[in-house]
Fold each of these.
Amino acid sequence: MTVVITPLALFGRWALALLAAIGRIALFAGQTVAHIVKPPFYRREFTSALLHIGYLSLPVVGMTTFFTGGALALQIFAGGARFSAEAVVPQIVAIGMVRELGPVLVGLMIAARVTSSIAAELATMRVTEQIDALVTLSTHPMKYLTVPRVLAATLVMPLLVGVGDVIGIMGGFLVGTERLGFNGATYLQNTVEFLQLNDVVTSLIKGAVFGFIAATMGCYYGLNSGLGAQGVGRATKASVVAASVLILAANFILTGVFFSI
């Protein structure tokens, strides 16, 4: 009997801990949204976050989506050749990049680059008691540290996703025209005619949601980190894992909402 109860007890403790963590994160996200509409607003922190999350992320976003678009074109051409359907490469590359790969890849790159950076920065501030100093100076840590970063990520991520979608399509275009023998004008015409406004809008909405998740996870784990160097390391690792998993889960939910039959 004990052999059966022990695994169930372990699973029960794990499930309760998971639900408690989800509840804490949900409360933190709700408090962040509530503070966005309340003064004061720290414009300097917001501008700095825009630069760090948006502009400085362009190189990694561009390279990731470019090579993904090119590889996608090669894969679709090789697979389509089995059914004499090589001509669908422009359409499938466009819809694959805009609907799924563009937003998800950009979201994961931001989780790797920005979420980890935010978590490490805020965890270090906690360890060195800088956050306690903000409270002493009557400055709300969430208003000063969390709100600018979350708002900046939410606003700039749709732009990054849009840029990533375009670069990914151009990666497929270059591979298609230079290696696979497609006519450039025909390739672009098929791409433009196949994409719909709903595809683009959905991609940008996903970007905003993924940006909110990435920044929120970085701030949550950074502000709630343990003490010492190990605490900073654990907070950084946990923030990236949580952001990546939540981005993939959110992508599944949003895809079901927007493209359910």
Note: DSSP finds nine helices and no strands in the chain.
Amino acid sequence: MKTILIADDEKSIRRTLELHLCEEGYEVLTAVDGPDAVAKAVEKEVDLVLLDLRLPGMDGFEVLRIIKERRPALPVVMITAYDDMSTAIEAIRLGAMDHLGKPVDLDHLDGVIEKIFEMSSLSRDGVLLCESPEPPFEKNIMVGRSRSMKEVYKTIGAVADSRATVLIHGESGTGKELVARALHFNSQFRNRPFIAVACSALAPTLLESELFGHERGAFTGAYRTKPGKFELAEGGTLFLDEISETSLEIQVKLLRVLQEREFERVGGDETLKADVRIIAATNKDLSALVARNDFRKDLYYRLTVVTLDLPPLRDRKEDIPMLVKFFLEKIRHEMGKSVEVVPQESMSRIFDHSWPGNVRELENTLRRAVLLSPGNVLLPEALRIDGSKGGDKLPLMIKPLQELEREHIENILAFTNHEKKRAARILGISRPTLDRRIREYGLNYSQKE
């Protein structure tokens, strides 16, 4: 029988998890603070730790570090109410197997535990499940708590400290450079340079000089020796955006850098070393370009050591409210213009739009709408989505988002005849989250499961 340690200072959460896991056939131990969690994880025959981030005596990250030092093969799942990018990245980088937000979805937790125990058999063959790198440096925040974005954060945490080449694939506007910056600034190389190059913005000859530098007299106008981006990024990260736009001649030189870690400046014969991590990005299907001989196959394989796919905004619309709030706050800081009310019609327009330009289009749309909206209300006609030219009337009633959410939950409960399980499924939230919303909004309902 597998033994699971639950480390959480909230009695109700400990008890809920304990009862559930016992029903699933596990033996359960509990800890109420950091030192207690360390002692039991290290000294007891524990197979898995469910670890809360905020613990008295010692926080969850410190507990995780100690566990990874003393029992590196012991799997740990971090559970926290602070369900955001920075905690997800730090948890994975410090060696956690997964990162779950509160309230815990018990069905999802069961799947995570089952997967971990399947993987734990590798430890008998001497394969460590996780390692313990240094803590990250928080910079360049990405926004989103959808499952697809959490997978992105976990991948960043898993590969940030390696020098492996990463290819980021995603549609225009999905935030590929933000991911590249997160990989760099959450790594042990965060204090070294991060340099981005837009490969599509320069002609091939100019791009070659930009990347590799040139010697004095190499071409007309080369009045002095100029170091390239590979030299300037020494010890750090070079981000090559839209690498699919590079010429075959440039691709040959990039392949040599990746294989041999060396290059020459344009017009020079001195071989220079390149201690640089390369992160590339593209919005095109490189394998299709390879099939058409428009992209070198050998370079393609070198670039795809780690591939990270960014979801388009239309596939993670549950992140839209958080993105709207984030961008409105960002716009307030940058422009001094504050919008505090988003009417139902405005939010409906935002949700109904397909956002072909993804997160970048959403930010630009909100920026324009804030400028065009008088007062502190985001007018629906100011959004100008799908070619809308305005002229629409204001909704009869402008309501805060919390009131809209309350009414929506109340309507769904009525529609399902107050069957909470069905209502939670329609709302796309967990049962515990629905219970919390019912309590917070003081909704009256006839309880049915």
Note: The radius of gyration is 26 Å.
